[in-house]
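for the writeup, i need someone to sanity check this before i put it in the appendix. the sequnce is what the collaborator sent (i think, or maybe the updated version? ugh). structure was predicted straight from it, no edits. if anything looks off just tell me and ill rerun, i have time this weekend
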Amino acid sequence: MSDRYCILLRHGDYHQLADTPSAHQPFGLTSLGLQQAAESANAIREMVDTQGWTLHHEVHASSLLRAWQTASVAMEGLSECDRIVTSDLLTERCVGSAANLTREQIVAAVAQDPRLEPLPDDWKSNSHFRLPFVGAESLLDSGRRVADYLTRTMDQIDRAGHAVLVFAHGASLRHAAHVLGVLPFDRIAQLSMYHATPVALSVSSDGVWRHAAGQWKNRHKQLEPLD
């Protein structure tokens, strides 16, 4: 076995502002989210033991509180893991200066700027669309950012069979999986990730990424948030 493994987890349920597209909200986990994070340790342990992998001692997490909390709580049940590396590069898609505005406020801000065209109907879910605000990213931009971080992280793991935990966000992780060649583009919108539930990708010695274990969640259109 020459492959290394990257185990991806979406954060647990969190306190989210209503009708607010920004995924950079600074709030922590709900009581349900804390429970999901605690239970994730068992799911991770089962996956690792079943596959015969070895957990790396460093855990990686988005710098947003909900992802860091999920990692912290999960680590309490994983004795091998002793350090969290946090990074802004693992955060969800940034909407720039529209951060934490409601959907209605974002549409109004675009409408009052004479330089801008009206937003397309699918602006929130369109993988290629970037809001016309300073600092904004498209979903694919965020996927490329996360994919680059995952690649550089796994390049530092030189032991076959070692698995690195990464706690981050659903949409940017799915788009990263596409950028890495794991998911076809048309599958991105069809899938989501269960809260605090592991999906593992393998990385071969020649840098080829594949799905290795765990299940994506089939996404019900217009019923679930992207993050």
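The chain has a mean pLDDT of 95. The radius of gyration is 18 Å.
thx in advance!!
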